[in-house]
């Protein structure tokens, strides 16, 4: 047992961070807020860097890496607040050939789906199977999303149309579990980034003639943010190693909480600035809220964990 | 990121399991919680059994009598002994988890030879005399004076909240040797025999009804200079070594025990109907996540222990764990309903004693200060 990251894993994470800092820094983030459409050039670059295919075997065009490596890359994507159907496209690698793939989860109501207009294909998940569909088959109607970087659609198409779709040869539970874990990794990135942002502001901003970070009320908010982020980190990493369903529920539950609550506390530390459109804090919080509803929400994760307790 | 066990580690686990299955049925019944001499005898007998089987001081270096095992074996040991329902370190807590590791890290060869083997054999019990009536969170303001007279320190003052003082042979004592030096600079670490003339122990009753700790009065107690660990006035640094151990793996076994209790609480909820309430189920599910992650955090801290002090990572752990433990026994009380009013129930006693977790070994507020200032680099307060 050695839970530390290997040198290769550290290098992978550092490489992902560097790539994203170069290609999706603050200016690009703010431009994306206005642009709405997916940046296909960036998407192609991410694909070229192996973001989606990394877990496929080398002969199939992948890098033969595992979930622990994927989780490290997605942590960085979360930290950069990279937009787009990252998890869905990653899950579709090896199943579908399209470059941009969205997910429709038919077990959830209301039936809403992210990124449909940008996608060329859709993974349709129900309780039993994974199917393939064209985005147009759903007759998507745009629904304004609280996150300006996540285009959202109301989806039509009843169960009878679903039946006619091509069934993909993959296990829906595995796909959901991996989707939940990679989303948890995005949340971990958000939790860490909002912590750093809060701490940087607390060191810099002065009131009453001293940095606000010297006040315990602010300090203790930051300390609790670190606690949440570190607990989420070990939970996400552990689940990536075991691949276990209950470990994944642990990871998603704690990472969702860390992302949402850290983003809120980050907003609080920023004071009035934190409530403005110009500050980035709200973008992190809104994305964290979106992720928290994906794959498995708090209620579902807690019920999964409860059901696994001793009978 | 490797959480797998090597065949050698699995063999260690199997051998330990066999041994536990063999010896645990032979243990006498556990003594009454209020019977301190009985508890001491019981805890020391258990420590002796561990020692004779080669399981004492699993992760202590071989040259001080430990097994010299790595972090993986250490965690397996904590996991398996808890799972098997083996006795807890109990009265040997300070010796095995605070004073011992400090002596191992800072003591001379002679001091290690003198004090460590009796701790591992369960022959000598230690207590920790740090806190004072006027020095709690602000430990560095401690006032107990030690005046040097030749090769002896003459110690006068009083220590408070000293756990297990009634049955201890030794006290790891912090004293002020330089009254002029500010705060932490004039402090020295001494090993004081508890039977020395001038030591008076007055047990204090806790809110759980037991006498876990005491006030210790020191009236011109003579402690040989040879009992000093580290240099004179260097006790603060020596102490920090201890506190970092305290916040590291000291609670690992308890996390395993909490996970077991959580399973029992769920079983109880299933049998008394509380389980039908989704609020109860979700509360227990959330606790399962928290304790699972705390176990991962221990594995993470232990894996990184060689890279630096476990003390700081331990602060995050202690903060979350102490809260989670209180939440666990509050949830157990919700499941028991009015049954939680019975003081005879084990969970009621645990609920009461869990209240100390956010206070002892550095309060939660102090842990947050440490995390914010030392890990996050926020400026010191006014
Ligand atoms: C069960 C138990 C066993 C113990 N065993 C031992 C032992 O064996 N040996 C030993 O030496 N000690 C022992 N202690 C003592 C323990 O370490 C102290 O109680 C603890 O450090 C707090 O000190 P205090 O009780 O004086 O509280 P105080 O320091 O007076 O704190 C009171 C309140 O003020 C808050 N506070 C204080 N300073 C600050 C600050 N700077 N910022 C924010 N908040 C602050 C605290 O968080 C707390 O809420 C034990 C305590 C308990 C409960």
TrEMBL record, chain A:
<dbReference type="InterPro" id="IPR036250">
    <property type="entry name" value="AcylCo_DH-like_C"/>
</dbReference>
<keyword id="KW-0285">Flavoprotein</keyword>
<dbReference type="InterPro" id="IPR009075">
    <property type="entry name" value="AcylCo_DH/oxidase_C"/>
</dbReference>
<feature type="domain" description="Acyl-CoA dehydrogenase/oxidase C-terminal">
    <location>
        <begin position="179"/>
        <end position="289"/>
    </location>
</feature>
<keyword id="KW-0560">Oxidoreductase</keyword>
<dbReference type="GO" id="GO:0050660">
    <property type="term" value="F:flavin adenine dinucleotide binding"/>
</dbReference>
<dbReference type="InterPro" id="IPR013786">
    <property type="entry name" value="AcylCoA_DH/ox_N"/>
</dbReference>
<feature type="domain" description="Acyl-CoA dehydrogenase/oxidase N-terminal">
    <location>
        <begin position="6"/>
        <end position="92"/>
    </location>
</feature>
<keyword id="KW-0274">FAD</keyword>
<dbReference type="InterPro" id="IPR009100">
    <property type="entry name" value="AcylCoA_DH/oxidase_NM_dom_sf"/>
</dbReference>
<dbReference type="InterPro" id="IPR037069">
    <property type="entry name" value="AcylCoA_DH/ox_N_sf"/>
</dbReference>
<comment type="similarity">
    <text>Belongs to the acyl-CoA dehydrogenase family.</text>
</comment>
<dbReference type="Pfam" id="PF00441">
    <property type="entry name" value="Acyl-CoA_dh_1"/>
</dbReference>
<dbReference type="GO" id="GO:0003995">
    <property type="term" value="F:acyl-CoA dehydrogenase activity"/>
</dbReference>
<dbReference type="Pfam" id="PF02771">
    <property type="entry name" value="Acyl-CoA_dh_N"/>
</dbReference>
<protein>
    <recommendedName>
        <fullName>Acyl-CoA dehydrogenase</fullName>
    </recommendedName>
</protein>
TrEMBL record, chain B:
<feature type="domain" description="Acyl-CoA oxidase/dehydrogenase middle">
    <location>
        <begin position="127"/>
        <end position="211"/>
    </location>
</feature>
<protein>
    <submittedName>
        <fullName>Acyl-CoA dehydrogenase FadE17</fullName>
    </submittedName>
</protein>
<dbReference type="Pfam" id="PF02770">
    <property type="entry name" value="Acyl-CoA_dh_M"/>
</dbReference>
<dbReference type="InterPro" id="IPR052161">
    <property type="entry name" value="Mycobact_Acyl-CoA_DH"/>
</dbReference>
<feature type="domain" description="Acyl-CoA dehydrogenase/oxidase C-terminal">
    <location>
        <begin position="233"/>
        <end position="376"/>
    </location>
</feature>
<dbReference type="GO" id="GO:0016627">
    <property type="term" value="F:oxidoreductase activity, acting on the CH-CH group of donors"/>
</dbReference>
<dbReference type="InterPro" id="IPR009075">
    <property type="entry name" value="AcylCo_DH/oxidase_C"/>
</dbReference>
<keyword id="KW-0560">Oxidoreductase</keyword>
<dbReference type="GO" id="GO:0005886">
    <property type="term" value="C:plasma membrane"/>
</dbReference>
<dbReference type="InterPro" id="IPR006091">
    <property type="entry name" value="Acyl-CoA_Oxase/DH_mid-dom"/>
</dbReference>
<dbReference type="InterPro" id="IPR046373">
    <property type="entry name" value="Acyl-CoA_Oxase/DH_mid-dom_sf"/>
</dbReference>
<dbReference type="InterPro" id="IPR036250">
    <property type="entry name" value="AcylCo_DH-like_C"/>
</dbReference>
<keyword id="KW-0274">FAD</keyword>
<dbReference type="GO" id="GO:0050660">
    <property type="term" value="F:flavin adenine dinucleotide binding"/>
</dbReference>
<comment type="similarity">
    <text>Belongs to the acyl-CoA dehydrogenase family.</text>
</comment>
<feature type="domain" description="Acyl-CoA dehydrogenase/oxidase N-terminal">
    <location>
        <begin position="6"/>
        <end position="123"/>
    </location>
</feature>
<dbReference type="Pfam" id="PF00441">
    <property type="entry name" value="Acyl-CoA_dh_1"/>
</dbReference>
<dbReference type="InterPro" id="IPR037069">
    <property type="entry name" value="AcylCoA_DH/ox_N_sf"/>
</dbReference>
<dbReference type="InterPro" id="IPR013786">
    <property type="entry name" value="AcylCoA_DH/ox_N"/>
</dbReference>
<keyword id="KW-0285">Flavoprotein</keyword>
<dbReference type="InterPro" id="IPR009100">
    <property type="entry name" value="AcylCoA_DH/oxidase_NM_dom_sf"/>
</dbReference>
<dbReference type="Pfam" id="PF02771">
    <property type="entry name" value="Acyl-CoA_dh_N"/>
</dbReference>
């Amino acid at each position: 047992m050695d839970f530390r990251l290997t040198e290769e894993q550290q290098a992978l994470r550092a490489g992902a961070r560097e790539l994203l800092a170069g290609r999706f820094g603050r200016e690009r983030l703010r431009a994306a807020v206005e642009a709405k459409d997916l940046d296909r050039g960036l998407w192609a670059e991410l694909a070229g860097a192996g973001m989606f295919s990394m877990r496929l075997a080398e002969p199939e065009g992948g890098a033969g890496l595992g979930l622990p490596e994927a989780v490290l890359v997605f942590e960085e994507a979360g930290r950069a607040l990279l937009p787009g159907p990252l998890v869905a496209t990653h899950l579709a690698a090896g199943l579908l050939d399209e470059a941009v793939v969205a997910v429709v989860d038919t077990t959830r109501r209301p039936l809403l789906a992210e990124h449909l207009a940008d996608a060329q294909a859709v993974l349709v998940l129900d309780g039993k199977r994974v199917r393939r569909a064209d985005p147009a088959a759903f007759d998507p109607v745009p629904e304004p999303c609280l996150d300006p970087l996540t285009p959202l659609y109301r989806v039509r198409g009843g169960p009878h149309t679903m039946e006619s779709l091509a069934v993909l040869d993959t296990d829906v539970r595995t796909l959901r579990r991996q989707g939940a874990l990679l989303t948890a990794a995005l949340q971990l990135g958000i939790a860490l980034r909002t912590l750093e942002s809060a701490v940087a502001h607390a060191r810099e901003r002065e009131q009453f003639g001293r940095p606000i970070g010297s006040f315990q009320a602010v300090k203790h908010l930051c300390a609790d943010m670190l606690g949440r982020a570190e607990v989420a980190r070990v939970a996400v990493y552990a689940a990536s190693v075991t691949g276990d369903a209950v470990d994944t529920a642990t990871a998603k539950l704690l990472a969702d909480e860390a992302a949402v609550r850290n983003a809120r506390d980050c907003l609080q530390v920023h004071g009035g600035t934190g409530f403005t459109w110009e500050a980035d804090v709200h973008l992190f919080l809104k994305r964290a809220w979106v992720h928290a509803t994906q794959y498995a929400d708090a209620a579902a994760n807690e019920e999964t964990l409860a059901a696994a307790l001793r009978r | 990121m490797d959480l797998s066990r090597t065949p050698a580690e699995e063999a260690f686990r199997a051998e330990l399991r066999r041994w536990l299955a063999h010896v645990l049925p032979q243990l006498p019944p556990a003594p009454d919680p209020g019977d301190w001499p009985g508890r001491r005898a019981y805890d020391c007998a258990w420590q002796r059994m561990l020692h004779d089987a080669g399981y004492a001081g699993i992760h202590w270096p071989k040259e001080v009598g430990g097994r010299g095992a790595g972090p993986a074996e250490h965690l397996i040991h904590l996991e398996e002994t808890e799972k098997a329902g083996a006795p807890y370190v109990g009265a040997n807590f300070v010796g095995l988890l605070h004073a011992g590791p400090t002596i191992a890290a800072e003591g001379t060869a002679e001091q290690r030879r003198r004090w460590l083997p009796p701790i591992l054999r369960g022959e000598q019990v230690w207590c920790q005399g740090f806190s004072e009536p006027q020095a709690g969170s602000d430990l560095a303001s401690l006032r107990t004076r030690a005046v040097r007279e030749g090769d002896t320190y003459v110690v006068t003052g009083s220590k408070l909240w000293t756990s297990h003082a009634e049955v201890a042979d030794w006290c790891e004592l912090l004293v002020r040797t330089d009254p002029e030096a500010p705060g932490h600079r004039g402090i020295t670490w001494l090993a004081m025999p508890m039977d020395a003339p001038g030591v008076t122990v007055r047990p204090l009753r806790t809110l759980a009804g037991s006498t876990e700790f005491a006030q210790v009065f020191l009236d011109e107690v003579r402690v040989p200079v040879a009992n000093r660990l580290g240099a004179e006035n260097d006790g603060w640094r020596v102490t920090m070594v201890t506190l970092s151990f305290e916040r590291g793996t000291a609670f690992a076994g308890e996390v395993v025990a909490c996970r077991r209790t959580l399973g029992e609480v769920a079983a109880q909820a299933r049998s008394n109907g509380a389980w039908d309430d989704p609020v109860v189920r979700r509360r227990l599910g959330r606790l399962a996540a928290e304790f699972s992650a705390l176990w991962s955090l221990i594995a993470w801290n232990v894996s990184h222990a060689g890279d630096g002090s476990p003390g700081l990572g331990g602060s995050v752990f202690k903060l979350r764990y102490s809260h989670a433990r209180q939440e666990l026994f509050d949830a157990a009380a919700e499941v028991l309903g009015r049954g939680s009013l019975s003081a005879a129930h084990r969970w009621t006693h645990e609920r009461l004693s869990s209240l100390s977790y956010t206070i002892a070994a550095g309060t939660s507020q102090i842990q947050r200060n440490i995390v914010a200032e030392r890990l996050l680099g926020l400026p010191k307060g006014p």
